[in-house]
Amino acid sequence: MVKRDLFNKRKLVGIAFLLLFLGACKKEPSYSLEISIENKTEDTILLNLFPQSEYLLYPDLYRPNDSNKDPYTGPFVKLSSELVPKGEKSLFSSRNIDQEPYSVAALVFDSIIISFYNEQIRISFSLDTAIGYSDNLYDSTSSWDYEVIKATENFQYSSHPVEIHSFKFVISTVKIEQ
After folding, report:
1. Residue 6 covered by a domain
2. pTM
3. Nearest residue to 122 via CA among 53, 35, 43, 38
4. Which domain does 83 fall in, by range?
5. Is a pLDDT exceeding 70 seen at residue 130?
6. Residue 10 covered by a domain
7. Whether 66 contacts 114, CB under 8 Å
8. How many Cβ atoms from other residues are within 10 Å of residue 71's Cβ?
9. For residue 137, what are the contacts with CB-CB under 8 A and spacing of at least 6?
10. DSSP, residue by residue, 94-142
């Protein structure tokens, strides 16, 4: 009886050490690229997105990432949304971080239109031109704010490091053309 208890205790200690060892192993982060629009004006704006056909799901929804090969499984995002002053809207995320933000925008969206509620200002971005704004988010010379965000995805029994390469296209009153 004493031998069996000693054996069970050794087994339990061995399992505990194994779990500690596995928990201490450094996990490789997963990588993500994200493009977003930030509203640095004093007005609420209406953002209208016109995705390429392969990302359009229903008349008013699109697929905001390339992580799922089945286009009819979520998540889905509305094509129109309000963006409050100092607010930010994520447009698309990809597991492929070896891309430029303007290339991702061109891959996913045919055009983007921004309207201001308080004024008669309308900004239109398309692949070859920007109307009402001095910078075109589709252009290779466009100005994007870049930041690497290190975070942790938490799951029920574990966590996983994530590195997000965040690109923000800023809408500011300085660049609005009348």
Report:
1. no
2. 0.80
3. 43
4. 27-175
5. yes
6. no
7. no
8. 12
9. 37, 101, 102, 105, 112, 125, 130, 144, 169
10. ES--SS-HHHHHHHHEEEEEEEESSSS-EEEEESS-EESBSS-TTSTT-
